# Entry
Amino acid sequence: MMLLSTAQGRTVVAVSTAERLGTITAFTLAPSPPHISAVRLKTRGRHGHVMAWSNVHSFGKDALTVRSAEALKPENELGSDEEAHRSHDPLGKPVLVETGECVGTIEDFDFDETDGRIRALFTAEGEIPGDRLMGVGGYAVVVRRPE
# Structure
């Protein structure tokens, strides 16, 4: 099990240069299939940076290694429609079932550190299987009704 809360604060290192790029602050999610689309980093300077999950080399217990520092983009240069935009960060957002009923607020989530697949979303009300994720927006996370 790899939780966002466990991953936050881990060092991000470029494999090509062994340079410390920053620390993990958040992830952005995308549906179909539910997965981490980008990693948000705290870096030196005024603005944070983001990097597509596809640039992840490996996710270890001490650090996240990435292929190259060139994959980092300044967060303030992203358009709101891009998957890596902070509006796709689920933490603290209400969870709505597709019918509009609120079933909690995202407190954490579990993901597969090898491929970024979302295994579960956690609210105070309980666990929601990751495969029910339909979308993450600026206001809420939308999930399919349980069958």
